């Protein structure tokens, strides 16, 4: 099965499941703290729940190495199918876990183990999906096709948050804590089955089939990438870090900042509208990059974050939902540029034989330990300095530094043929 619509649908469903779970866990973190960590201290329970949430980010780099290697050795389709099984299976099992009151310490232990599986699976999902879409896309449409992955992530967060809000309005607090929190997690089962069915019906990408026909499949792709693509790995890591920090500000930290000056429902509503706007902008960013090139879109997005970080956070923390929405929508434009460029540039930077491994490892290192801790670092900076602008300055410094690095070092990759032999892949524009 090779039709464009089938390729897009099969690729996006796993990515949607990953970000749906991300949103659901964040939205029910308080409830999960009570169910799995009943310390008697609500703050301690919440912190324990959020710590388990963060464990998945620690395991992303390992997952990137494992699934990336699988994609280079056995094929992109195999990596995608494995990722969707891991993500949907672990998410579904979280929805079925007995509580601490039922099985004691085994409950939080199993929750931790399942979050580790989610992290391992997510480590290779985004870049495997990007590589799959890009390797099927015509050269002049690769940016647009890859943009659909970024857009699906925004839509999944809205869907996950919305499902929890709906349940909180339909159920009593007691029902929500007893069984209601499980329902969104259980939705991963049908999503995963649909994704697995669609992915197993796909043919391998033309680029990988050609690679296999030329007998150029790398036996140890991670080692090969570390030996021959070190500069590319560092550059891709920087790309992923600034992209991830910005996205987690948009998806989580801004919502928390609004909640401090307003009510939770209004904050989540503003955040959802902004994410819908972000999802709509993503295809535009991809389309522009197909015509103007990746470099101006990527560098412009990073430098725009550096300029907008402080005014956006002032708007978000103003206490006015209208001004907060304006700020988040302003922020969403350069963030869409960064996310879409990460989806396609990390694929185009690496040669075909190490593409899945190199891009997954660099992306998961940047988005995992670096970007995954960004909301926590932002909150800690605000608490330590007493200034709500400290988190904005943190983002601005990262964005400015990476933007200047990209301006000097990032090659223009939009015209690179993805199927070329590794030996002729250049590191310059």
TrEMBL record:
Membrane spanning stretches: 42-66, 78-97, 103-123, 144-167, 179-200, 233-254, 266-285, 297-317, 323-349, 361-383, 389-407
Domain Major facilitator superfamily (MFS) profile, residue spans: 7-414
Pfam family, one: Sugar_tr
UniProt cross-references to SUPFAM superfamilies, sorted A to Z: MFS general substrate transporter
Signal peptide: none
Compartments it resides in: Cell membrane
InterPro entries on file: H+-coupled_symporters, MFS_dom, MFS_sugar_transport-like, MFS_trans_sf, Sugar_transporter_CS
Keywords of this entry: Cell membrane, Membrane, Symport, Transmembrane, Transmembrane helix, Transport
Keyword DNA-binding in record: no
Membrane topology: Multi-pass membrane protein
Alphabetized PANTHER family for the sequence: ALPHA-KETOGLUTARATE PERMEASE
UniProt-recorded name of the protein: MFS transporter
């Amino acid at each position: 099965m090779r039709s464009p619509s089938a390729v897009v649908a099969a690729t996006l469903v796993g990515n949607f499941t990953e970000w749906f779970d991300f949103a659901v866990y964040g939205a029910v973190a308080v409830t999960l703290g009570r169910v799995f960590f009943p310390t008697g201290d609500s703050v301690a329970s919440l912190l324990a729940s959020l710590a388990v949430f963060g464990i998945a980010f620690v395991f992303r780099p390992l997952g990137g190495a494992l699934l990336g290697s699988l994609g280079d050795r056995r094929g992109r389709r195999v990596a995608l199918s494995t990722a969707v099984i891991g993500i949907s299976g672990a998410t579904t099992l979280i929805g079925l876990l007995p509580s601490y009151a039922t099985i004691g310490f085994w409950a939080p232990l199993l929750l931790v183990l399942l979050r580790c599986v989610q992290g391992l699976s997510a480590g290779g999902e985004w870049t495997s999906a990007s590589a799959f879409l890009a390797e099927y896309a015509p050269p002049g449409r690769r940016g647009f096709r890859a943009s659909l992955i970024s857009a699906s992530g925004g839509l999944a967060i809205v869907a996950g948050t919305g499902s929890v809000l709906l349940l909180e309005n339909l159920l009593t607090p007691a029902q929500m804590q007893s069984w209601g929190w499980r329902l969104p997690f259980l939705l991963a089962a049908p999503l995963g089955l649909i994704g697995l069915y669609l992915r197993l019906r796909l043919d391998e990408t033309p680029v990988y089939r050609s690679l296999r026909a030329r007998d150029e499949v790398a036996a140890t792709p991670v080692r090969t990438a570390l030996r021959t693509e070190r500069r590319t790995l560092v550059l891709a890591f920087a790309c992923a870090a600034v992209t991830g920090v910005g996205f987690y500000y948009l998806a989580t930290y801004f919502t928390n900042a609004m909640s401090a000056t307003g009510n939770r429902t209004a904050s989540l509503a503003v955040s959802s509208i902004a994410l819908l706007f972000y999802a709509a902008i993503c295809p535009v960013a991809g389309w522009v990059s197909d015509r103007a090139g990746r470099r101006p879109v990527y560098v412009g997005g990073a430098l725009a974050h550096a300029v907008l970080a402080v005014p956006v956070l002032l708007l978000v923390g103003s206490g006015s939902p209208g001004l907060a929405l304006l700020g988040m929508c302003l922020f969403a434009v350069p963030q869409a540029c960064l996310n879409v460029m990460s989806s396609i540039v990390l694929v185009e930077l690496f040669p075909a034989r190490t593409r899945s491994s190199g891009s997954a490892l660099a992306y998961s290192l940047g988005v995992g330990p670096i970007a995954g801790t960004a909301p926590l670092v932002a909150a800690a900076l605000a608490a330590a300095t007493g200034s709500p602008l400290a988190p904005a300055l943190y983002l601005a410094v990262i964005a400015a530094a990476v933007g200047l690095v990209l301006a000097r070092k990032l090659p223009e990759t939009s015209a690179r043929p993805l199927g070329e032999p590794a030996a002729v892949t250049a590191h310059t524009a």
